[in-house]
Amino acid sequence: MVDKYLFYALCLAAIVYLKSVSISDFALLSLYSRQSLTSSYCRFTKSHDNLPVERDFHINCAAIAREDPSTSKLLELKLLRARKEKKIISSSWHDEAFTHFIRANKCAKFVNERNYVMHSVSKEEEDFPLAYSFVVHKDAGQVERLLRALYRPQNVYCIHVDQKSASAFYNALQDMASCLPNVFLASKREDVVYASYSRLQADLNCMEELLQHRVQWKYLINVCGQDFPLKTNREMVTHLRYNYPNNEIESFILPGTKRSRYSMHWEITKSDKGEYDRIPSMTATKKADPPTNMTFFGGSAYLVATREFIDWSLHNETIKSIFEWSRDTFSPDEMIWASIARMRGAPGFRHPHIKWDLNELQSLTRVVKWHSFEDIAQVPENERVYPKCHGYHKRTICVYGTGDVGWLLRQKHFFANKFDPNYDDFAVQCLEKILRDREVVDACTAT
């Protein structure tokens, strides 16, 4: 009898200890004590325990997540030294490397060495598959790391590769897709022009094929190559199960400064500066009214939407006519989803009243740190919404550095945009590490 009570006391002490350790500690503990854990999912999930940020540069990602000042200062010095010596610290592969590796070593070695999660982590996730639409045009290494972070065997992934992308990029993604049965490249490719209808059409192509896929997914999420998740698959699924049948679509009354985008006719013209060779340009021709009496809302090209909403959007005749009408507008995807989500009859309909407006800070879709709202001297104090960017700015958007990781992990959003591994790969590596550690904890405590 004494032994029995002693056993119970030891179990209770163990539980109290496990509750007290950090997520990173728990993840490491699970690696060494896996045989003692009862979850049937645990043995299928491995931590990212060999990333250069920790192995070679001795940067503790858990300390980065806590925004530890001494770790952040050490990291800053190492990055400055690396840039001064013109060294790029990246764990991404170049385009050709995927093709060479997969064709030489076969798929089994690829999914094992790249540490893909090839088994479900929980029953909850098995019963709630997600669909992803990727619209990408370059850097197979960065795309592959995004895919790997999101990949789960019960989900389904469509990758749209820009028609003008390099053949090495296309081949790399095609070879990756051949190794993952629920990943495929869009059969219809668009020549994507920035801020034009072609960007929206690329997503529509993937959405159509995803609706026809055998996987009966519950929600669709669209991403670009410079996104990275801030939540694990299970964390997203847990929220969406309770959120159903609502959508996460940014939507607010269209600002007057953007009305010309949809009231005037735009044409694709050659660009003589910047990173784009062609851009939409406004003409003097006024557009006809849309085919139905609709209120224009502003929003984002990115959404988290139910299967029912996507199906309705692609096959409702009125909505199809709105898509067609928007072909000669500027950035129609930043208006279409925001507007049709507020129309009566839309699955997950949200009332058009201003009370139901949702901006990027309120939506869960993705967090973007805008330069004009950062906590810096140039911005009026009452306009400062975000802390200072620790990376650099591209088109007034922060391209995150490792110093942003702690702040990002405190946000409620599913994704963050933008990342550039060629500038600061530690940010992506630490997010990879922290999210996988959470995944290990989930897998080893799943029921």
UniProtKB/TrEMBL annotation:
According to its record, how does it sit in the membrane? Single-pass type II membrane protein
Q: Where in the cell is it found?
A: Membrane
State which residue ranges cross the membrane. Answer: 6-29
> Which residue windows are coiled coil?
none
Give the pathway listed in the UniProt entry for this protein.
Answer: Protein modification; protein glycosylation
The answer to whether the entry has keyword Phosphoprotein is: no
Q: What is its main location?
A: membrane
| Cellular component GO terms, alphabetical | membrane
Q: Which UniProt keywords apply?
A: Glycoprotein, Glycosyltransferase, Membrane, Signal-anchor, Transferase, Transmembrane, Transmembrane helix
GO: which molecular function terms? acetylglucosaminyltransferase activity
InterPro entries xref list = Glyco_trans_14 (IPR003406)
Task: Spell out the family assignment given in the record's similarity comment.
Answer: Belongs to the glycosyltransferase 14 family.
Q: What is this protein called?
A: Beta-1,3-galactosyl-O-glycosyl-glycoprotein beta-1,6-N-acetylglucosaminyltransferase
Q: What organism is listed for this UniProt entry?
A: Oikopleura dioica
